[in-house]
Write a structure and sequence with these properties.
- There is one protein chain.
- With about 220 residues, this protein is an all-alpha fold.
- The protein folds into two domains: about 50 residues, Orthogonal Bundle (Arc Repressor Mutant, subunit A), CATH 1.10.10.60; about 140 residues, Tetracycline Repressor, domain 2.
- Helices cover about 75% and strands about 0% of the residues.
- The chain contains ten helices and no strands.
- The longest helix has about 35 residues.
- The radius of gyration is 22 Å and the shape is globular.
Length: about 220
């Protein structure tokens, strides 16, 4: 006589859900490391599942394909930086304080998140072909530009900041000053005989970046 399996209890369903979430998270973390190190084309699913401690079936169950897994990684790393920027609560800070907080956060984020730096570099090599599929990335970036625009306006109204500063131009400058030395650490270090990866140099660099941005914003002379 055929037997029927009993329905899972509520506790069993919760346990299965937690186990599934942990597996999906391990896969995402393993994929982030693999794509960071080897790029999209060089990454191998076999290495990802081995590092995550699961099997091929689970990977395709949660993510469907290598491309969808990569898109999930991209979405995750961009969501992470945007969420942390929102936690700065720039709307509630004075103009100088807000820009300083944004500069310090951006500098630290690039310094402490090598996977983010490398994956975005790799994606630029691919001309953003994968990122173009993620409309959520652009949507989540809009609030940051709106907050910077508001900070700049409040700074102008208070007589603290110069006029005519574009929010996107400013943010791109902050990013460039915060990561160029990371992206080119080996060539610049060898070219100038100075270890740009040392803690002391990068601490000095942080102060330099902060000073450059704030000096530019508070320089009231006409351009």
């Amino acid at each position: 006589m055929a037997t029927t399996s009993k329905p899972k209890t509520k506790k069993a369903r919760k346990t299965a859900s937690r186990d599934g979430a942990r597996t999906a998270r391990r896969l995402l973390e393993a994929a982030t490391a693999e794509f960071s190190r080897r790029g999209y084309e060089g990454a191998r699913i076999e290495r990802i599942i081995a590092k995550a401690g699961c099997n091929m079936r689970m990977l395709y169950h949660y993510y469907g394909s290598k491309q969808k897994l990569y898109l999930a990684v991209l979405e995750r790393i961009y969501a992470d930086i945007r969420e942390k920027e929102q936690q700065l609560a720039l709307d509630h800070l004075a103009p100088l304080e807000g820009i300083t907080a944004l500069v310090d956060f951006t500098y630290s984020h690039f310094a402490e998140n090598k996977d983010f730096v490398q994956i975005t570099l790799n994606e630029n090599v691919e001309r953003g072909v994968h990122l173009a599929r993620l409309h959520s990335v652009q949507e989540k970036s809009s609030p940051l530009l709106a907050q910077i625009t508001t900070l700049l306006k409040r700074g102008r109204d208070d007589g603290v900041f110069r006029d005519g500063v574009d929010a996107l131009q400013l943010y791109v400058s902050i990013v460039a000053l915060s990561c160029h030395h990371i992206n080119n650490v080996y060539t610049l270090s060898l070219t100038f005989g100075t270890d740009l990866g040392s803690e002391s140099w990068r601490k000095e660099r942080r102060g330099h970046v902060r000073q450059m941005i704030l000096s530019y914003l508070t320089d009231m002379r006409s351009v």
